[in-house]
Amino acid sequence: MSVLRILHLVGSAYNEFYSHLSRLYAQDCLTATADSSRYDFQIAYVTPDGQWRFPPSLSPEDIAITKPMSLGDAVKFITSQNIDLALPQMFCIPGMTYYRALFDLLNIPYIGNTADIMAIGSHKARTKAIVAAAGVKVPRGELLRPGDIPTITPPVVIKPVSSDNSLGVALVKEATDYQAALQTAFQYADEVIVETFIPLGREVRCGILVKDGELLGLPLEEYKLDPHDKPIRKYADKLKETDDGNLDFSAKDHTKSWIVDCNDPMTPRVQEVAKLCHQALGCRHYSLFDFRIDPDGQPWFLEAGLYCSFSPRSVISSMAKTAGIPLNELFMTVIHETLRSNQ
């Protein structure tokens, strides 16, 4: 196979938080997948002001000294580089939608789900409606806008409809706590979803990998929760801020999360539901879904995470490794699927 020129699309067109998050994951990916015999990596870095840079690395120094470009100039530059495919590494809403759509316009294949599927997956209420129509169980919920009054009796979970990493998420146990929780959630989105709290049995994620056109269910990842002290996951379980103000991963060890034994009877049950979600949403290449398992063993769909950065610490990467698929093989698999689907 000839060397593939792959453009990593990094940064955020929205704010500094997502810019740091994108750079964190993308740097891990660049380091772990570097193979000059297979890939020629290029970097496009977008800042919240809409400017583009094409730095030689993702170090803050290289980004700072690289000349910024307008969108028009960036498009001219990209089209002159003979890019074989792109890997979107942006986690903000514009990055997951508009910037992916740009590659459709430029006729450059890209790894991961399409802009329209990402737009649906980033809106928790729309995602729930689609998978529910396919027969997947979802908690009862309602979509609120500022000024709306919730009608569901607590306990409920409140979530900004389009934020990730548990930003603004809260468990409301009493109706008197509604106002404060909604006020916090509306700081992160114009719409908020309120859904019935599912009693804790277990909480897991399930990844789906497309390999040679077939859906492969990956091992589950389970999170340590406690019905009394920690009934839901929060932001601190996922990311932390370092002393220099940058983002880093919260510790990923067996005390917080672990890969479930493949012989666990819940694994095939959740995998089948995850495949239903993947198909209902029209996903391609890979997908990732969160499920709450109630005390009776019933999986309930919570949300979709339709992206992977291909960092060793990405959830899908960890799941694939446990299934005997190392990161380099995972990366080659999605590249093959991307090029195959664009033939």
From TrEMBL:
Q: Name one Pfam family in it.
A: Dala_Dala_lig_C
Key word Signal present: no
List each copy of the ATP-grasp domain by range. 128-336
One term of GO molecular function: ligase activity
Q: Which domain of life is it from?
A: Bacteria
Which keywords does this Swiss-Prot/TrEMBL entry list? ATP-binding, Ligase, Nucleotide-binding
Q: Which PROSITE patterns match?
A: ATP_GRASP
Q: Which Gene3D superfamilies match?
A: 3.40.50.20, ATP-grasp fold, A domain (3.30.1490.20), ATP-grasp fold, B domain (3.30.470.20)
The molecule here is called D-alanine--D-alanine ligase
Upper lineage is: Bacteria, Bacillati, Cyanobacteriota, Cyanophyceae, Nostocales
